[in-house]
Amino acid sequence: MEVPVEKKAMVKEATVESGSLMNGHEPIDPYMEKRVVGKCDLHVLPVLSVLYMVAFLDRINIGNARIQGLEEDLNMNGQQYNIALQVFFIPYILFEVPSNIFIRKLAPSTWLCGIMLGWGLVTVCMGVTQSFAGLVVCRVLLGFFEAGFLPGCLYLFSMYYKRHELQRRFNLFFGLTILSGAASGFFAYALGKMAGVGGYSGWRWIFIIEGLGTVVLAIVSKFFVADWPETAKFLTTAERALVVRRIHEDAAGAAMNDLGSKSRRRILFDWKIWCGAIMYLGCANSGYSGAFFTPTILKQLGWTSTKAQLYTIPIYAVSAAVTVATAFLSDRLRHRYALCVFGICVNAAGYAMLLAPKHVPVDLRYVALYFTSAGGYIAQPLTLVWMNNNLGGHYKKGIGSAMQIGIGNLGGIIASNIYIAKEAPAFPVGFGTSLALSWLTAIACTVFFVGLRRENRKRDRGGRDYRYNLPKSEQESLGDDHPRFRFVY
What we know:
Blueprint: H1 5-23, H2 30-43, H3 45-66, H4 70-73, H5 80-86, H6 89-94, H7 96-104, H8 108-128, H9 132-146, H10 149-158, H11 163-191, H12 202-221, H13 237-250, H14 261-268, H15 271-300, H16 305-333, H17 337-354, H18 362-389, H19 394-408, H20 410-418, H21 428-460, H22 472-475
């Protein structure tokens, strides 16, 4: 693909300036740094936060559509609803890594808005499908188009913000996503009132209206989504160089800007990525369980469909507030592990309450949903940023984060199959499996914490200094294996 001349000039200019700054000894001007970070906050974070909120809304609205008559109109029975949920995750998992490789070679604004346009059109198609087979095809395509959005956003954020600046910003981004759960309940309540308009049931209008909104937003957002720092149009040449220098120095110069065979091996055989995926799997299962089944659980506790939709709203609102507050505390303390485990303990307490329906009244079971949701959403973004914080280099961050999210989203497949209709409303398999996966996340977090601390101590003793004897070309692509890199926990 031919790169436009003006873009080549921008990259060259930023690279030269960046190189001169990074090779110099002048300290960064704190006033300029604060001003540049503020500009990044205005241009990078808000637009992508709104887009991901819409992405999650389009992904989970099937849970609201279900209690508005989806299964009855499409003559679905047995576990067919669960099948429709799980097929989404097959392409979603498979295409996350290729997407983050591709976005590295293309403007993020083009790639992210392009895939958003695709899933918006698919969401509209879900509203007019006439069969279970049609619904399944739409869910597969939805997974394909949505696959690259979350890992692409995390990758892009990590190129603008230092490691202990990233968590609170990512959680603000993620917090809006949680609010999409509240918005989903509100929109489902409102759009459900359109039942009969145009001869369509209310659940069809949920997909059609929300899908059309996504299409319009994707087209408009192409002009507002930020690209890589080296070519960001909202920054001056000096500001672009400053952003690149900040990230370079924060990673102690660790880089991985080529994807040769040795770099690929360092990525594929890095224990941190596989451990990070297990950490995320348990959190993802809890998040998807709530998104897909909370309306159903509330309805089966005895409330009407309308009341069940409305009662999901405060659950997500509380979860979003707690998630954002935890992120600010995490960045301020410069610590991730203990807060992850705290979130898991809150989540596990909620599932323990739900597993005892004969001993817990309905009102307290509703409270338990706050625990499962808030606890899971405390841990989920923490595990993503924590792992990303400990990856060094462009390709290592991009592919490593995509692997974590892709493999971790096996939790979505699990969540799609453990809430068995005939076990309602107790759902012992669903709640029991989710509780077990929560503790699996806690164990993986502990292994991650111990492993990182042990590796830092080894590097402090000079145990990795032999890597300084590697060829210069290999040293420049060590990523976080570079002896100067230190892990955070």
